[in-house]
Amino acid sequence: xxxxxxxxxxxxxxxxxxxxxxxxxxxxxxxxxxxxxxxxxxxxxxxxxxxxxxxxxxxxxxxxxxxxxxxxxxxxxxxxxxxxxxxxxxxxxxxxxxxxxxxxxxxxxxxxxxxxxxxxxxxxxxxxxxxxxxxxxxxxxxxxxxxxxxxxxxxxxxxxxxxxxxxxxxxxxxxxxxxxxxxxxxxxxxxxxxxxxxxxxxxxxxxxxxxxxxxxxxxxxxxxxxxxxxxxxxxxxxxxxxxxxxxxxxxxxxxxxxxxxxxxxxxxxxxxxxxxxxxxxxxxxxxxxxxxxxxxxxxxxxxxxxxxxxxxxxxxxxxxxxxxxxxxxxxxxxxxxxxxxxxxxxxxxx
Length: 350
What we know:
Layout: H1 6-18, H2 21-26, H3 38-52, H4 59-68, H5 75-82, H6 91-119, H7 124-136, H8 145-165, H9 177-183, E1 190-195, H10 201-213, E2 219-223, H11 228-240, H12 244-249, H13 254-263, E3 270-272, H14 275-280, H15 282-289, E4 294-299, H16 301-310, H17 317-335, E5 344-349
Parallel strand pairs: 1-5, 2-3, 2-4, 4-5
C-alpha cells in the first residue's frame, strides 16, 4: 500500500516557492506532518518562517533559511522542487492527496501499536482505549488541546506582565466617544465598516486616523473613493477650523491661510498611500514598507474588481471574494504586528 508520494510533496513545495500567494490560501490546511520526507518537512518550516516575517519566498531565501537552521541542503535541492510544478493551480488537491497518505501512515502506526501491545499481553481494554484516543486525534497535528490551552495561557501571562509594565498597548482609542465605548478602542484584528454610499464612512475613518496620528502614531490611508487631494483638504479643514468649501475654492483670508499653514504640521504622521503602490506592489509589500502604520483599506464597488484583478484572483465571484478576504484577514493578524501596525479596517459601500 502506498504511504507517500515524493513527487506530490515536491510539487506542493515548488508551488509555494514559485507563487508566494499560494501559501495564504493553504496556510490553514498544510503542516509538516503531511510530508514523509524529512527534507521536505524542513523546507515547509522554512517557508512558513519566511512568510511570517514578511520575507520574500524564493529558491535563494529558502536555501539560506535551511542553512540557518542547520539543514543540509544545496541550491540544486531547492531548485529541484520548483522543477516539479508549473503553477499552484492544483495545490489544494495535491495537499488533499498528502493528507490521505498521512492518515494512512498514522493509521498503520496505530495498528502496529495495537498488534505489539496485544502480543505483549497488555491490558486489552487499555490497548483499545489508547487506540481509540489515537484514532480520534489523528488530525490534530500531534498537538493536544491541553497543550494548546497551556501555551495560550502562558502567552497571555507574558502579555499581561508586559501590559502592567507599560511595554504594550491593549488597544488604541479612536477619539470618538461612542465608538470607543462600544469597541473599547481598536485592537489587532480586522474591522468591517459598511453602509450605503454617501453616509460618511470615509470621512469618519479619516477623522479617526487623524485623532490617532495626534498621539504620535503613524497612520496610513488608501482610498479608491477619494483622491489624495480631496482627503488632504478635508483634513486641513478639520485641523485648521476653516470651512471646507473655502479651502476647495481658495476663498481664504490671510488669517485662514496662516491657520492652515500652522496646523498642517499636525498631519506629519498621516500618510496617503498611492493607488499604484497599493495595487502593483501588492497589499503586503505596501504594509511592510510602511512598517509602523495603522492601515486602512477603502474599497468601493467600482474599485473592488480592480483590486481583485491585481491580486491575481480567479474569475469566479465566490472564489474571488474568498481569496480577497483571506488575504486581508491574514494581514490584520500577522503581517503587521501590534502595536506598530495595530489594525486593518475595510470600508465597503453596498
